[in-house]
Every structure is written in structure tokens, then in C-alpha cells.
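Whiteboard transcription, Tuesday session. T.W. wrote the C-alpha cells on the left side:
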């Protein structure tokens, strides 16, 4: 790699993070290892020692930032830059190395490099043993800005903020100059639109958009290469799942998994009350599915379909719920009671403690009837308990749960893989 860079600055945050790989590729005359706390000084010195063993004539200097807040980091880097310029070095001779730090740190370093006209280096490790790592080089401020914005878009996508991901991918599409970049941004934006629809239960629209994504990946196979095949396969799984559940008004076994995964996504977003509502609904759909598929009883139209229940069993059910006539519809609790009266093997395996705890949390949370705020720990317990119940139902229905769950899982984008495709 033929570059004019004489200095490369690295932040050491307690991890080695391939600093020596950038040094080996760029071959600067000097490097600065800036420890982000006193705890990282030993790591910085150890990295410097390893580099010296391989490149004996390199000059290594060390600095420390005691309070590694964003402002402190920027201020320290600015002082370091001023010091280097005072010794006769110009911006084109100075670079900043990115080696897998936290996203905020990478964004900060990228902005710093772009503002002061420094070269930015980013190391992408190999995915497989037979592959080599790659150092991406960004010398133009617009390229640096695009790289940071792209990472923000991927982070938004992977944290389920699809609205922001669409906005960023669309903006990157408009700014892209290469056909490859434009095509990839178009597909990623379309995929974010599909998941946004799916996340709000608009299954048919999500199916159409994912189908369009698959078509575009096939049309752009050269741009995507092997990575495109992996994404294509995952979207094929998504499409098969949506094809099974997209019919409106139909209670499908797979919808239980979709509600459970939707609740899990809300948990990861720290929307605990939203998660509880979805876990509750997942369990309720389990009972609705069982009643409709096995007993021809529609819980949402119970008064008209209860005729399918033997008279003695119906009387027993009404006695247990303390009603004289069949209600117009029944919810989770009454559905479980009815299934147990009917001797249903699935209902017999639903732990009453779990059901009542979930009902209590759902009814008392601020999104339902109460004013309580559900804790992270409670939601995580519910997630595990409801999934265990789903597995029971799927086993009774002779359907492989893990396979269906895989089909219903949203893809997570690999930032390094896509960065290599677009910027490599």
C-alpha cells in the first residue's frame, strides 16, 4: 500500500483490535497509541512491544486520556494533532486507525479525521481462516462521512429502527457515485421497508417487498457475490414464513412464533411493556389455534361456535367461569379453562403459575389497564417461559419449532462484510 502517511493515531480501549494489522499494511514511520484510561496503559505498551518485534525501526509514542468521554477524547486528539503540526507534519501525513472500537468512538474518530483532513484507516478482519483481512482507506472527507453514515444505517437496521435506516440508506443511495453502491443501498432500503411492515404485522406488504428484494439480489448477483447468496437464502426463508401467515383473518400456528419474536425485539429495544403485550398475545394465539384447529371453536365468535362442544362439557365450562349463557367471545384465561374441560393435552401442560403471572403483568402494565412499568428481568423470564410453551405446542403439532423460528427471524446485517463490498 503506497501512502504518504507518516503518523497513525490509535485509541487503545483495552482490546488489541488489529492495530498491528493496520501498521503492517500502512507502514508509517511513527504511531501514537492513546490509552483511553489508566487501565489500558499496559495493553497499549504490550501492543507497542509486539509491533516493535516485527518492525524494529518504527517510532512509537504513548498518551493517556484519563476520562474517555467524547469531548475529552476529541480535545486530547486535537492537542496531539497540534503537536504533530508544530513539528512540521501536515494533515496529509497523519492518519487515524479504526480497529473495532465502540460505534460512538468510531463515529467520533471519523468526524475528527474528516474535519481536519486526515486519512482514515479501518481494518476488516477475515471471516474465514482461508481469507485475508483488509484495510479500507478513506482520504476524502466525503468518503469518510459516507462510511460513518453507512455504519449508522447498519446500526439502526440491526437495532430495529427501520424508519431511520430507510432514511439513511436512501440518503446514501442519492449520494452514491458507483453503480454497485447504489444497487446495494437500494436493496438495503427496500429490506428495511419490508421489516418495518412486518414488524407492524402488515404481512402481505412485507411479503411483496421481500420478494422484490430477492429479485433485486438475483439481478445484482455480481455486486453482492457470496455475501449476497447468504442474504438471498435468509430472505427466501422469510418469504416462506410470510407466505404461510399472510392470509388475513386466519389463525395460523406460525403466528405464535411471530408474536413471540416481535416481543423479543421490543425487549431488546427496552420497550418492556410492549414486549409483555406481545408475549401475552402469543400465548393467547396458541389457545385460539388449538380451539379452532382441533375443536372447530372460534374464540372470537364463541357464542355461535360453542355448538361444537358437547352439552355436558359446555355446561361444565360455563359453571367454571360462573356464567349462565355462552359469552360472545372468550380470551386467554377462558380459552385455557375450556381446553382443560375438553381434556386437551396442550392446555394440561400450560403452567397455571406462568399464565396467571403473565396475565397479571399484562393487565397491570400501563399499556393495558394499570400503571405499572414492567422490568427487564420480568420480560426475560416471560420470554423463556412462553417459548417453552410454544415448543410444547409445536411438538404436539409435529412441527419443527427451531426451523420455523429461523424462518421468522429478521436478518442482522454484517457491517464489515457490507463495508468491504461498498468501500473495498
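and on the right, the sequence the group agreed on:
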Amino acid at each position: 500500500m503506497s501512502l504518504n502517511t507518516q503518523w497513525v493515531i490509535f485509541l487503545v480501549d483495552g482490546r488489541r483490535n488489529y492495530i498491528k494489522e493496520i501498521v503492517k499494511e500502512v507502514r508509517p514511520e511513527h504511531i501514537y497509541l492513546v490509552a483511553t484510561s489508566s487501565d489500558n496503559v499496559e495493553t497499549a505498551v504490550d501492543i507497542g512491544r509486539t509491533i516493535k518485534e516485527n518492525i524494529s525501526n518504527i517510532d512509537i509514542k504513548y498518551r493517556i486520556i484519563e476520562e474517555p468521554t467524547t469531548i475529552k477524547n476529541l480535545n486530547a486528539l486535537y492537542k496531539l494533532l497540534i503537536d504533530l503540526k508544530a513539528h512540521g507534519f501536515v494533515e496529509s501525513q497523519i492518519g487515524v486507525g479504526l480497529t473495532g472500537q465502540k460505534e460512538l468512538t468510531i463515529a467520533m474518530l471519523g468526524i475528527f479525521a474528516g474535519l481536519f483532513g486526515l486519512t482514515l484507516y479501518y481494518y476488516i478482519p477475515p471471516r474465514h481462516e482461508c481469507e485475508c483481512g483488509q484495510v479500507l482507506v478513506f482520504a476524502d472527507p466525503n468518503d469518510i462521512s459516507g462510511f460513518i453514515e453507512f455504519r449508522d444505517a447498519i446500526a439502526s437496521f440491526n437495532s430495529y429502527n427501520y424508519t431511520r435506516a430507510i432514511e439513511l440508506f436512501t440518503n446514501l443511495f442519492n449520494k452514491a457515485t458507483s453503480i454497485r453502491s447504489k444497487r446495494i443501498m437500494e436493496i438495503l432500503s427496500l429490506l428495511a421497508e419490508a421489516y418495518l411492515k412486518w414488524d407492524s404485522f402488515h404481512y402481505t406488504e412485507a411479503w411483496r417487498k421481500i420478494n422484490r428484494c430477492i429479485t433485486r439480489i438475483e439481478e445484482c448477483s455480481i455486486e453482492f457475490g457470496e455475501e449476497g447468496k447468504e442474504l438471498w437464502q435468509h430472505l427466501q426463508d422469510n418469504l416462506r414464513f410470510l407466505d404461510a401467515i399472510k392470509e388475513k383473518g386466519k389463525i395460523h400456528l406460525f403466528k405464535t412464533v411471530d408474536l413471540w419474536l416481535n416481543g423479543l425485539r421490543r425487549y431488546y429495544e427496552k420497550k418492556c411493556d410492549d414486549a409483555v403485550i406481545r408475549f401475552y398475545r402469543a400465548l393467547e394465539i396458541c389457545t385460539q389455534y388449538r380451539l379452532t384447529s382441533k375443536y372447530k371453536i372460534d374464540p372470537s365468535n364463541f357464542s355461535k361456535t360453542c355448538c361444537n362442544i358437547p352439552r355436558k362439557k359446555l355446561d361444565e365450562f360455563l359453571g367454571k367461569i360462573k356464567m349462565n349463557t355462552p359469552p360472545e367471545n372468550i380470551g386467554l384465561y377462558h380459552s385455557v379453562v375450556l381446553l382443560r374441560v375438553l381434556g386437551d393435552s396442550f392446555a394440561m401442560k400450560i403452567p397455571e403459575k406462568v399464565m396467571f403471572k403473565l396475565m397479571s403483568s399484562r393487565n397491570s402494565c400501563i399499556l393495558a389497564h394499570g400503571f405499572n412499568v414492567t422490568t427487564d428481568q420480568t420480560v426475560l423470564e416471560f420470554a423463556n417461559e412462553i417459548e417453552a410453551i410454544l415448543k410444547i405446542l409445536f411438538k404436539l403439532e409435529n412441527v419443527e419449532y427451531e426451523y420455523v423460528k429461523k424462518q421468522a427471524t429478521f436478518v442482522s446485517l454484517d457491517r464489515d462484510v457490507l463495508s468491504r463490498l461498498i468501500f473495498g
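Someone added at the bottom: Residues 205 and 287 are 27 Å apart (CA to CA).
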